[in-house]
Amino acid sequence: MAGRVLDARGDPIKNAIVEIWQVDHNAIYLAERDSRSDFDPNFQGFGRLETASNGEYRFRTIKPIPYPGRLAPHIHFKIRTPGHEPWTTQLYIKGYPTNQRDGIYRGIGDAKAQESVTVDFAPIKGSPIGEMGAKFDIVLGWTAKG
Ligand SMILES: [Fe+2]
Fold first, then answer.
1. What is the Å distance from ligand 1's center to 89 Cα?
2. For the segment 68-91, what is each residue's pLDDT rounded down to a tens digit?
3. Are 23 and 40 in contact (CB under 8 A)?
4. Could you give phi then psi for residue 31, rounded to 5 degrees?
5. How far is the CA of 74 from the centre of ligand 1 (A)?
6. Engineered SS bond to 80: which of 17, 36, 76, 102, CB 3.0-4.6 Å?
7. Ligand 1 centroid distance, CA of 73 (Å)
8. What are the domain boundaries of the chain?
9. What is the pLDDT of residues 107-141, one digit of tens each?
10. What's the CATH superfamily of 2-139?
11. Ligand 1 mean position to 145 CA, how many Å?
12. pTM (2 decimals)?
């Protein structure tokens, strides 16, 4: 899963802190691991990195799945940039059959707003283990440079 963090003019934001978290393949969050013996010990459950000078980030993770109460599989994002409040959002899977039955997904608003956080998971050509790729650019509503 990769993308860029951009400002309102489309310029890259470097050194933004990008955090993600999501459930494991048993639909369990890292925060629940103490009460759930079936949390996958091989799954980190979160990631954090700093964007490169071109605003790029890249994580290796698993394709998200639904969990009780959330029918739209998603990955949580929090973007931190100096001088601004953290921005949180969620990434959704394009074409997932139960997206529209998820209250939070429906609450995003119109189809265009939903589209802006819904991405295609496509097979990576030549991957010997069937990996998929997803591209998610995040545009923050301000300009990085004067
Ligand atoms: Fe969630």
1. 10
2. 999 999 999 999 998 899 999 999
3. no
4. -65, -20
5. 6
6. 17
7. 8
8. 2-139
9. 999 999 999 999 999 999 999 999 999 999 999 98
10. Aromatic compound dioxygenase (2.60.130.10)
11. 33
12. 0.94
